[in-house]
Amino acid sequence: MILICVFFALSLCGCAAPKREDGIQIVVTLFPPYDWVREIVGDVEGVTVTLLEENGVDVHSYQPTVDDMVRISSCDLFIGVGGESDRWITDALKGGNPDRTEMLLLPLLGDNAKEEELVEGMEGEEDEEEDETEYDEHVWLSLQNAVFYCRKMADALCEIDGEHAPDYRANAEAYIAKLMLLDQQYRETTDHAARKTVLFGDRFPFRYLVDDYGLTYYAAFVGCSSESAASFETVIFLANKVDELSLPCVLALEGTNHLLAQTIIDTAHSDGVSLLVMDSMQSVTSEARKAGKTYLSVMEDNLAVLSTALK
């Protein structure tokens, strides 16, 4: 009810919070685009980048606070995903700074946005309507998408702050060069891999990544699934795939208890199957960021895991 009142007040006044006098304010909902825009801003003074989801809250369960709403209402650049998990953004962007630039990652992809898919052996959502199209929100897990978004962010910053446009352009191109180099390392790894299939005993948010490199996958649930307990049939199917494909490992996501992945391993007849973890960056704590966690460092670690999984 408090949030609804805030939305209503913002809509009525049109200018909600007074114009900030402490420089350019950028508000981002999720860690990966936060890290991208931070790299593009670089050492430019007078620019503040705020990450809303900084307490390790999963993107699928995050809800904005009143303070978050005030930040969004008065910022100069807002960056969000724009998928099913953050429908609250629609109301958050009503009213506020009339000159605010808004970037929603999923809609920006246009026809390149991927629909969620149910592959063989995967469990669907029990309450999902058959005629409802849902798109995979995890667009940041493609390095090629990251390059695209960084260019869009640089364009937006140059429009907002033309004085520092050369700095934004230079910082963006330097960072994009690193992204493209890592993308090439992924391509070389997957092109020369002994196998082309991965198996997740978990949700699967890596659709954009595997499609980039021509990989196939099996998993228990789609990326945005709220399910956590797989059926007996799903466990048996995935365990049989481990045996059939002689897979060296079963993959799982960061931050889960990995019980399902371990059950699949224990059910399979193959020996020496390991459990490895890939990081989807859906939940990154401020402590991890202070310790040096970046988008590039995570994607480098994911490449190492992927390399082992494809041996």
Question: What this model shows, in words?
Answer:
The chain has twelve helices and eight strands. With about 300 residues, the chain is α/β, with parallel strands linked by helices. It has two domains: about 20-110 and about 135-190, Rossmann fold, CATH 3.40.50; about 195-280, Rossmann fold (3-Layer(aba) Sandwich). α2 (about 30-40) crosses α7 (about 165-190), α6 runs antiparallel to α7 and α7 packs parallel to α12 (about 295-310). The protein is globular, with a radius of gyration of 21 Å. Residues about 1-20 have low confidence and may be disordered.
Shape: globular
**Secondary structure tally: strands:** 8
> Helix proportion of residues, in percent?
40-55%
- Placed side by side, the strands forming the largest sheet appear as 2-1-3-4
Instruction: Give me the Rg, rounded.
Output: 21 Å
Quick synopsis:
It is built from 12 helices and 8 strands. With 311 residues, the chain is α/β, with parallel strands linked by helices.
Give short descriptive properties of this protein.
disordered N terminus; two-stranded parallel sheet; Rossmann fold; 2 domains; alpha/beta
How are the SSEs ordered, and which strands pair?
Layout: H1 2-13, E1 24-28, H2 31-41, E2 47-51, H3 66-74, E3 77-80, H4 89-92, E4 101-104, H5 105-108, H6 143-160, H7 165-191, E5 197-204, H8 207-212, E6 216-222, H9 232-244, E7 249-253, H10 259-267, E8 274-278, H11 286-290, H12 295-309
Parallel strand pairs: 1-2, 1-3, 3-4, 5-6, 7-8
